[in-house]
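Changelog note: in this version the structure field was regenerated for every chain. One regenerated record is shown below for reference.
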Amino acid sequence: MKLQRHPENPVLEPNPAQRWEAGAVFNCGVTLGPDDRVYMLYRAIGADYKPNPHGYGYINYISNIGLAISDDGVHFHRLPEPVIRPDTPEDMWGCEDPRVTRLDVDGEPTWWVTYTALSAPAFSGRGDRVGIASSHDLRTFTKHGVLIPDAQDKDAVIFPELVDGQVVLLHRIEPNIQIAFLPGPDALAHPDWAYWRAHLSRVEDYTIMRPQFPWEARKIGAGPPPIKTNEGWLLIYHGVGEDRVYRAGVALLDLEDPRRVIARLPEPILEPVESYEREGDIPNVVFPTGAIVRDGVLYVYYGAADKVCALATARVDEVLHALLGR
């Protein structure tokens, strides 16, 4: 089973007219807004970064998060300024890879954004934390600081519904995917560090997925927030093989006990093939971070080669059939 790329890919490219997003735009979270339009939060790099002459990656490589809006999920109009900026000690080196989930608070529409907050330069291998922000209108966003302390951690996603009255969150301490259960949305806005330190001290107990197949042998991480279906929570995730290629896979988690993995495809559902996926700032990368369902069709948005945003689709029933064989 493979996702089908949209013929108009890439759906978002660097914008030379805006310096803060002139270098690269990628790894975008998406959600449906109150007007049923598609809201895309995307990672943007300015024009001034350069290859690191002393090692892997780039220097002067700092991410903002921008916002683009679409009626059809393909053609996007961007806001002229970032909506989340690296302006605190916790994220002064970048706000990366946003995922967005609607989880209302006391009946008020609330969108929660998890992102990687960098307190150290990108590519340094340190200072990566899970940042958390929220919005009631998908226009203005309030930061709530670091959600998970004292761990090199990223790829956090929030389930779009409470499960047994609890907020459920996936995160990634390499090379595995972990799950956490929080008492309610207030625990997102006001993180309980005592809870998280206890959680981290027993992180193996909360690990629900590990690298299993050759294409994901180095590490895996959650992609978009899980999508609820009649058969279970549909989880799109990424995996990295020993060849350092980033690919996308799919698994199904139990609706009532999402610690339990019902099914998982042994082969990737998307891997770098097109030039925009193979050639970029980091070559050979497809990195899914956003997904919505419209009229039974799954829309998966992904970063391609750390340069552009792209879209691939499949019918939800076809994905479930591949997972369950029925």
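Spot check on this record: The longest strand covers residues 24-32. The radius of gyration is 18 Å.
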